[in-house]
Amino acid sequence: MDKFYQALTIVSFVLYWLLVAGVTIRVVFKPRPVGVSLAWLMIIYILPVIGVMAYFLIGELNLGRTRGERARAMFTPYEQWFAQIHHCQYHQPHSISHRISAIHNLCSNRLGIPALSGDTLSLLNTPSEILNAIISDIEKAEHEINMEFYIWHHGGLADSVASALIVAAKRGVTVNVLLDSAGSMDFFKSHWPKLLKQSGVNIVEALSVSPFRMFFRRLDLRLHRKIVVIDNRIAYTGSMNLVDPQYFKQNSGVGQWIDVMVRLTGPNVAILNTIHAWDWEVETGIRELPHLPECPASIDPFNHTTQVVPSGPGMPDDIIQQVLITAICQARKSITITTPYFVPSEILLHTLRTTAHRGVEVKLILPKKNDSLMVNWASKSFFETLLKAGVQIHEFNGGLLHTKSVVIDESHCIIGTVNLDMRSFWLNFEVSLIVDDPEFTKQLSWVLDGYLEQSTQVCFDTWRHRSWGNRFTERFFSMFSPLL
User: Fold this and answer.
1) Where in the cell is it found (predicted)?
2) Where would a tag sit more exposed on the chain, N or C end, judged by fewer CB atoms within 10 A?
3) Residue numbers of the domain that contains 12
4) Order of strands across the sheet with 120-124?
């Protein structure tokens, strides 16, 4: 019997060694950033069995067979829809300024989505202003309302939005709501989904989370976009989930969430509506491509330009990071960045340092308190390198700064749902606007100036003398930063 157990132990060891060797080869040969591969190898070797299981569950971008096949089949009709936009008068490639011409060329070539003129943009930066504007537009809807959010949390004005949707559905407006299963878990447990469905609202749980599905699809792949489109005429996007901050995560100890949203009218509304249509079809199999924007015979050639950039599974790899780095590299005077979660890739970190070294004023505004312990510590591991390069780091004291924005040279900006972390760059479904409009950018700059007034600048001399315990914790969590 002893020989049997001895033989079983040897066989088990050999099989596990072969498994680890096989996974190691797969990790090494998988095309991805070196830091991500090294992080995974560390987890696999430090955490026997658990590390291998974790890699199988969340180590690779797996949308699932059904969604993957559906997305591949969808590509051609959506590509054809976007191709027609290139022939619209709103697309004026020769009038696009040098500020975003490189970004337009990148997005046009890789996504097939051109930059368009003719939008009217309004920046909304308080929860009541944002939610009341959405409610007002819902009340005026005549034909169709399409919405998608990562989080819908009931309470306060968020309930007023739900009530407005119910009234709209009862008067004959088609209402399609797509919500991420994990982000909106509490909402799906409430009475609201049943009430909405009974009233005629089509509400779909995207990327459903369950133990059974973990073997067929990566569970931490999330729908992180925030989009509202009404009658294909009005759209909203930005950083804010469908929540009233006064009723959301009040016990988390980080304060109220601080966000902005953009209200659009014009041709890019149809682009955002098509992104919603893509996500709706991936989840349901139902195709509802919107009408193309009505194109006039001519428009003002000096009108500002806006580029919509969707990213995530089914979109070209690394597109949003390419856009971000292109914008940063073209900065001449200043860059101000806000993000709640700062865990940059190696190339983004290098780009920020290089930009500061060439004399560009780089400001980074981050929340003082964060709802993610791991991200909070991991982000601090980059501070010393950035401060040494001359990057200004400001910690916001007025709550969880959730706004995701980049202002370049106070002339153009990036605003949307993307955090500066690997999850937004490589994993989640995201959407961003690149806005070449000095007036709009000036409004956003004023908002960021308000954030700076509520922030404390990190002093390099003070930071470099922080405790060794803090240094160790930062370095420990930074090893996992490519996976956060």
Assistant:
1) Cell inner membrane; Cell membrane
2) N
3) 2-58
4) 120-124, 261-265, 234-238, 227-230, 144-149, 174-180, 202-206
State how far Cα 175 lies from the chain centre.
24
Which residue, 474, 170, 479, 102, is CA-closest to 322?
102
410 exposed, middle or buried (CB, 10 Å; 0-12, 13-18, 19+)? Answer: middle
Whether residue 235 is contained in a domain is answered as yes
Q: Are residues 255 and 367 in the same domain?
A: no
Q: What is the 3-state secondary structure (H, E, C) of 79-91?
A: HHHHHHHCCCCCC
39 and 129 in a common domain: no
Which residues are known catalytic residues?
Answer: 224, 226, 231, 402, 404, 409
Q: Is residue 41 part of a domain?
A: yes
pLDDT at 214 over 60: no
Confidence of residue 67 (pLDDT cuts 50, 70, 90): low
Band of residue 249 on the pLDDT scale cut at 50, 70, 90: confident
Longest dimension (CA), the chain: 89
Say if residue 204 is in the same domain as residue 80: yes
Do residues 334 and 476 share a domain? yes
Assess if residue 304 is contained within a domain.
no
**Please, is 223 exposed, middle or buried when counting C-beta atoms within 10 Å of its C-beta (0-12, 13-18, 19+)?**
buried
User: Do 214 and 149 fall within a single domain?
Assistant: yes
Pair of tokens at residue 147: 């919405």
Q: How many domains does the chain have?
A: 3
Q: Say if 64 falls within a structural domain.
A: no
> Of the candidates 118, 109, 112, which has an alpha carbon nearest to the alpha carbon of residue 82?
112
**Closest by alpha carbon to 134, among 47, 39, 228?**
228
Report the alpha-carbon angle 307-324-381, nearest 5.
150
Same-domain pairing of 172 and 198: yes
Q: Please, where are the H alpha helices in 317-453?
A: 319-329, 346-357, 373-380, 383-389, 422-426, 438-453
Contact 157, 135 (CB under 8 A): yes
Q: Could you tell me the two tokens for 269?
A: 């509304």
Same domain? For 351 and 452 the reply is yes
Q: Which residues of 470-483 are buried (b: 16+ CB within 10 A; e: fewer)?
A: eeebbeebbbbbbb
pLDDT in tens, 297-350: 666 665 689 999 999 887 888 899 999 999 999 999 999 999 999 999 889 999
Instruction: Please name the residue that has the structure tokens 């996976």.
Output: 483
User: What is the C-alpha end-to-end distance of the chain, expressed in Å?
Assistant: 47
Residue in this structure with the two tokens 């994990």, named with its chain if needed: 182
Same domain, 213 and 132: yes
Domain final position from 298, 330, 360: 298
Helix, strand, coil % in the chain, rounded to nearest 5: 45, 20, 35
